[in-house]
Amino acid sequence: MIGAKTAALFLTHRTPHLLIVRLRHYFKNMLCTDLHPPAAVRGMTRLSREAFNKTIKTPHLIVPKDVNLNNVCRVIKKFLLKMERYKPVVSEEYKITLHPLAVQRWEDLAEVELDKLGIDSKALVWQEIQLGYENWKYDEIFKAVLPEDKEALSSFSKIGHIVHLNLKDHLLAYRELIGAVLLDKIPGCRTVVNKSVTIDNTYRNFQMELLCGEPDYQVDVKENGCAFKFDFSKVYWNPRLSTEHEKVVKMLNKNDILFDLYAGVGPFTVPAARKGCTVFSNDLNPDSYQALVENCTLNKVSKNVKCYNKDAIDFIQQEMKHALLETCANESFKGHIHITMNLPAMAVEHLPYFPALLKGEKIVNLQQKPLVHVYCFAKGVDDKKLIAQKLVEQWLGTDVDDKLKEIAFVRNVAPNKDMMRVSFYLTEDLLYGHSDAGRKRHLDTEDKPAEESKRPCQISDVLEDGKESK
Ligand SMILES: C[S@@+](CC[C@H](N)C(=O)[O-])C[C@H]1O[C@@H](n2cnc3c(N)ncnc32)[C@H](O)[C@@H]1O
């Protein structure tokens, strides 16, 4: 998880070199109180842009008109005052603003040997400059306005034109200001929302409060080379999962089959179909299903994808079972079968539906064992890989040591809570119910009717996930 400051830097600087330069200036300016916003803005809850106006005295170099200004600029680069929307070189006036921390006396410029260019100490003068709201980035503004003694604005996500925050309680009083500043300062931002407390957590789409801008939640985003359109207020989308989506899609090859059990709007399904996989894609949320179908069309992969709007249990017992049997019977199928289960708060509870799924069916040889990628939250201080494995084993009702491909860390969501992926193979014994798998079911679900496992996620599944922002 990156902080707001770093998030801002990453949002605007994609190359490491530019990021380092920006960081250098950020810290240099932060060390110089003259370059901070006025102290009076501390505690401001409604944005007053004028309150940021201030006048400061800074060193300037007044370059004689007969000296080549470009040559001076070249040697003096690292002494310039660099601030947002501030031009340190005014060519018409042959005037250069220098950084007040770097240049306090003529001797500070000794290393650039200005005398060799025909400039002497008389050229260094102190003059007033006006600074205002436009000269600070949003992170500098928040540092000046928000309470000093409390946790700063921790992070946010940008989804298309929407900036999405998850404000801590102590920042709620500042939400209007935070929204207005982000709308002003984040390129391409038209809408700023905050995750509100009321959660519709079955579909993992959070209620959100509009902080600033247009109430337009229909977004266009790109991920892993594919285009996605959806209504962010109605479906699940998390830009922090793009690397994980990419990792799993990389494991797939043309002609493989993917069962995407909780597909959302298609971040596994669409790129997999683009690779030439056949995808059986399912989501319970009718809005996700709708967007999934449209995203398949948008990316011209509809011919490779069958979309369903079902509970995952029904999908497993009907479509998946049927397609598995068909695939097993098809001797010409040479691909691999993958099953993605990204609903970390409860996907493990659906694992008991795999053992004995094909029980009583004509036994055919599984040329390739289906590979399940199930996500879960590993909570606690112990080894998270072990916690994740235990969770899977409890719900699957059997050890997975001999079935494991890998257990991978996906991301940290809260203190002592990590999202993990357990990738393991479904063996023939398991699917045909030959092993004791399923008998050692998790205590809580033992002997419960299937309907009971179709529970919606609990509030606690999501609420304690403090850092989660969808
Ligand atoms: C965490 S999101 C994952 C979406 C997408 N696969 C991704 O990686 O971004 C989980 C999805 O599961 C869906 N869902 C929740 N309960 C479900 C259930 N019982 N059966 C099928 N889908 C369900 C939600 O609507 C949501 O889109």
From TrEMBL:
SUPFAM superfamilies: S-adenosyl-L-methionine-dependent methyltransferases. Monomer. It is an enzyme of class 2 (transferase). Belongs to the class I-like SAM-binding methyltransferase superfamily. TRM5/TYW2 family. Belongs to the TRM5 / TYW2 family. This is tRNA (guanine(37)-N1)-methyltransferase. Its EC number is 2.1.1.228. Specifically methylates the N1 position of guanosine-37 in various cytoplasmic and mitochondrial tRNAs. Methylation is not dependent on the nature of the nucleoside 5' of the target nucleoside. This is the first step in the biosynthesis of wybutosine (yW), a modified base adjacent to the anticodon of tRNAs and required for accurate decoding. Involved in mitochondrial tRNA methylation. Specifically methylates the N1 position of guanosine-37 in various tRNAs. Methylation is not dependent on the nature of the nucleoside 5' of the target nucleoside. This is the first step in the biosynthesis of wybutosine (yW), a modified base adjacent to the anticodon of tRNAs and required for accurate decoding. It comes from the Eukaryota. The lineage of its organism: Eukaryota, Metazoa, Ecdysozoa, Arthropoda, Hexapoda. S-adenosyl-L-methionine binds at H245, D283, L284, D311, A312, N342.
